[in-house]
Each structure stands twice: as C-alpha cells, then as structure tokens.
Amino acid sequence: MENHNRYAKVTELNGRPRLLEALPLAMQHVVAMIVGCVTPAIILAGVTGLEASEQIILIQSALLISGVATLLQLFPLGRFCGSGLPVIMGASFAYIPLLISLGSRFDLPTIFGAQLVGGLAAVAVGLFYKKLTRLFPPLVTGTVVFTIGLSLYPTAVNYMAGGVGAEDFGSPRNWLVAVVTLAIVLFFNYFTRGICKLASILMGMIFGYALALVMGMVSFENVNAAGWFQFTMPMHFGMKFELTSIISMLIMYIVSSVEAIGDFTSTAGGGLDREPEEREMCGGIIGNGIASIIGAFMGGLPTATFSQNVGIVIMTKVVNRCVLGLAALIILAAGFIPKFASLLTTIPSSVLGGATVSVFAMIAMTGIKLITKEKLTARNTSVVGLAVALGIGVIQANGCLALFPDWARTIFGESAVVIATITAVTLNLILPEAEEEREAGAAKIARANG
Questions:
Q1: Nearest-CA neighbor of 333 among 36, 26, 21, 60?
Q2: What's the structural domain count of the chain?
Q3: Cα dihedral sign for 238, 233, 99, 266?
Q4: How many angstroms separate the CA atoms of 117 and 296, rounded?
Q5: Side-chain half-sphere exposure of 103, counting CA atoms within 13 A
Q6: Cβ contact 183:192 at 8 Å
C-alpha cells in the first residue's frame, strides 16, 4: 500500500513513477525524436556552409532548445506559459523550406533575428488563438501543410543524390545508399512492431550509415577533434534583423501555431480521453513562442510538437509528465556533449535523404488528411488547387518575379508556404459557400453553443 501511495502509474498525468519503469519509456521517446530533431540543423548547416566546429554547435543548440521547450510544455511557468500536456518538442521540419531559403540568401544571424520576432508572434497567437483559428479551418491548414510537404521533396532528392555541391553528386553509390536506407525505413515501419516500428527512421539511418561506412563514405576526423563537454554561449551566431525575412517568418509562425492546436487536441484526446482546455491551448502556443525566443538567443531552431511522439502517447497511453520530462533531460544532456553532436555530422547526405523523404511524404499526406476533413466541393477544390498551384508554381518557375522589388522576391519568391497561405486564407474568406455548406456550418455552430 505504501508503494502504491508513493509511486504514480505511468498512465497517470501527474505523480512520480518508478525510475526503472520510467527510463525505458523515456528512451523510447528519445529514440523516436532524436534524428528528426537534429536533421533540420544538419540541413541548415550545409546550406549556410558552416565549418565543422560551427555545425556541431548548431546541432548542440537544437538539442538544448528541444529539451528546454519540452520541459516548458510539461511543467508550465505560471498560468499561460506551457500546456501541461504530455508532448515532446523538437526542431520542426515545417520550417525547413523557409530556413533553406533564408540561409542561402542571407545568413544564420538573419534567421535568428526573424525567429525572435516570430516567437513574439506565436505568443500573440496564443493570447488570441480563438479569433485567429477562424481564419485557419482544416481546409486552409491542410493546404498549407500539404504545400510544406511538396516543397520539401527537392531537398530530400538532392540529399539522396549526395547533396548539392558535392563532388560525387548524382553518383550511383549515393543513390544506392539512399534507396537502401529508404527500404530499411519502410521495412521496419510496415513489417515490425513495438520500438522497432516506432524508431523505423532511426533503424534505416543505422543500416544506411553502416553501408556508407563500408563503402568509405564516412570520415571521423571531426569526431576525434571534438571535446566531451561544451556549453553553447548565448548569441554565439549573433542576430540581425531584416524586414522581408521577418515577414516570411511571421507568416510561418502563425501557420505553425495553428497547426500545433491539432497536435495538442490529438494528445489530449488520444492520451487523456478528453478535449484540451482553453488554458492548455493558449499556454501551449505561448510556451512554444517563448521557447523560440530563447532559441533565437541560444542558436536553437524553431520548435514544434513531434507527431511521432504524439503517436507514441496515443498508442501506449503513457501520459505521465515525469516520464516525458526524463526524456527531455536526456535530450538536454546530449546537447552538452560535442562528441555526440559531431558524430551526427558524419552522417552522409544520401543517408539523410533516404531517411527523410518518407518523413516529408508523411507531412504532405497529413495535409491531405486535414483537407479531406471537409467536403471537396467545387469551392473547396478551388481553394486548395489554386493555393498549391501558385505556391509551388512560383517557386519552380525560376525568375518569374525577376522584375519585382527585392523585398517582394524575398517574401513571395523564396518559400511556397507564404503564397499558399495567403491564397488559401483569402479564397476561403471571399469565395461563397453553397447553400448546404452554410446550413451545415450554422448547425455546427449551434451545436457548439449548446
């Protein structure tokens, strides 16, 4: 009876469970998110041409801010800073198209300056989320998420070919390693169960990395030179403010904040069998904004809830905040070890491409799932089709904005997400609904108001 009173069950939100029971469950979350957490940093480091030592610091910072963001969500500061829901935070793939664009056009300090302002925008969304969510129904949010997935495909394919600028770009051995990595990911995802299924991307990268190692594609020079412990100093990369970058980041943060509502809803519904409270929604979005602000100073990238970890919570019903908090502490500890970060930089581009193409495909399919929550009427089809056509079309048609001012090319010509978002929101507001759609919407509002 004493043990029952002393230790909580891992299926209970609050309380301290046994360490021996919590540790493997925490490691499961770490394994599921660690690759996805550091991959955006690795990709951005390649785009901006960082030296090996700077790449290590960027990866460390991504781990550190992910740990901080997770703890902030699990154990809120005050009433409106953190959700208190069992979620794991990490560097978001959704921002990669914009980060690649800004990184290649400007530099890291400009990205972090825009991220600081974006974090403030997320705080504002959290404070007024009820009003803003009316602008982002599933149709609009799904269109934006679908566009994000589509815009990431060239990044994955370039990495599968060896990485743009590599001497062996497009070589058969790069494609061999990439295809083998992808095949292993698919095998573990669809033909295994338990931790192997949940960590299918990690398993694919391990096998792909081993193959690349045998083929002489891996160098450990940077690992040998790295130390065992290092603390990333604030403002290591600096910070600059550039208006067009800020505007692009603002739009992305607003979209991402609204998208986070879906993950919080899934976590509360699947893990706790209830709807999330208004305080949890507001606190979750504000907490992510605060984490992004901290990340801008520490060199950490924009964070978001990790869907794979949401899936683990829903499947296992392990919602105890101490379990997920232990996972956050492990992630934090990894962020202080340069040896670990430097080891991650040795992963060949072809392995990254083979592993992440499936992730990017799932992002696009998630968008389609959101879109199909509403009937694909002629009106809704126009909203989705035109938004995606303009967003992706402008990016693929190089030089189509060549005679526009520089600020316009930066905001509208560098990321498909910006044009797609503006188009989807505008069309959704101005295109008239069919009579049956208006009646269904009115009935839905009536039911919501009791």
A1: 60
A2: 1
A3: negative
A4: 9
A5: 20
A6: no
Angle between helices 19-48 and 349-371 (to 10 degrees): 100
Tokens at residue 18, please? 């046994």
83's CB contacts (< 8 A; 6+ apart) are: 73, 76, 264, 276, 280, 281, 283, 284, 287
Residue 202 carries which side chain, given as an amino acid letter?
L
Question: Which among 298, 263, 222 has a CA at the least distance from the CA of 63?
Answer: 298
> What is the pTM for the complete model shown?
0.70
The residues facing 305 across adjacent strands are 89
Q: Which residue has the tokens 């991402």?
A: 256
- How far apart, in whole angstroms, are the C-alpha atoms of residue 327 and residue 315? 17
- Rounded to whole angstroms, the Cα distance separating 231 from 89 reads 21
Nearest to 371 by CA among 200, 150, 215, 211: 150
* Helical residues (DSSP H) of 161-277, grouped into ranges: 172-191, 194-198, 200-214, 221-225, 243-272
* Residues 89, 295 contacting (CB under 8 angstroms): no
Q: Can you give the residue range of the structural domain that contains 263?
A: 2-448
Mean pLDDT by groups of 10 residues along the chain of 450 residues: 64 84 78 74 83 81 90 88 88 80 85 92 86 79 81 81 76 89 86 70 81 81 68 82 87 78 73 80 90 90 78 73 90 80 74 79 78 86 92 84 76 76 89 68 55
CA distance 201 to 184: 8
